[in-house]
Hints:
Number of domains: 3
Low-confidence stretches: 6-12, 132-152
Number of helices: 10
Number of strands: 2
Helix content: over 70%
Shape: flat
Organism: Ailuropoda melanoleuca
Protein name: KIAA0825
Order of helices and strands: HHHEHHEHHHHH
Mean pLDDT: 74
Radius of gyration: 33 Å
Structural class: mainly alpha
Oligomer: single chain
Amino acid sequence: MDCGDEYSHNSFDLHCLLNSFPGDLEFKQIFSDIDEKIEQNATSIEHCIKEIQYEVNKQCPDVQLRTTTDCLEWLDDYNYNPPKSPSIPHGDLIKFLKTLQDLLKSELNQEEMILDLLWDLSCQSSISFPSLLSGASFHFLSRTSLHSVEDYSSMDVRSIWDNIRLHLRRFLVNKLQSHNEISNSQPKIWLKNQCIQQLLFLYPESEVIIKYQNIQNKLLAKLLQNYFPSYSRESNLDIMVHGFQSTMLKLYSMIKEDFNILHEILAPASTVKFIKETYLDTVTEEMAKFLENFCELQFQESAVRVIKTSKSSSRHRGAVHALG
């Protein structure tokens, strides 16, 4: 194609692109729809606040919310002062945790039952289970003397609890890894979402995400190993492009699955960060390595051919001089 044809083709593409943009009337309609949605949302929020105001005034006679500001301040104060967890005698707590610990050691396949029990206790009885490794403990009444130098009761509770949740973590991580073998995307998303929710009940979000990231990194490494050709002298760009295309299709399905798993659990920024670090950064790094090795091999091949050609020319010139 000559320059004139190429310019004409590019101009046509640009013209089509410009024509695809909305006109003034379309923009006015778009802004009108946005304004309408904002008004609907404002009305809905106002209605919700009035319902909260009515219910609070009805259920709590000592609290009278007269204005929207009163209602918002009351909600803000309520969120910062949640109901306290009930206190549990130390002896009862130790006995309960040791029973769970013994059950996990002596009986097989009790993990799901124990997870459900702990979840019910947390949700229905407002008993808080610590997810932090340090500085966290159950709310209980210690029987240790006030005059003792150190109180080891909380350490005993934390030690047993850490042992229980470590056992449950191994169980859940194994489940997460096995769910990767499921071919149907929808059940896989639901099951993995459930596993991550249970892990978040036991451990802080940062630890759970790192663990899940490690699982997915191993899966991605296996994918790249299967789809990308090994570095060899027979490697060529066609093979590389074919491997890249196959990888992108599978990569897209993996990213889509993890987005559907995590977007209901994590904040949007955390979900995007997870996908970027787990998939996009890894694939970019692997592609860079592959291209670097590929180019190095090609340069070596070119250098060898140049040297062979140079030697052949030298021999040819030598033969010509000898004949002369």
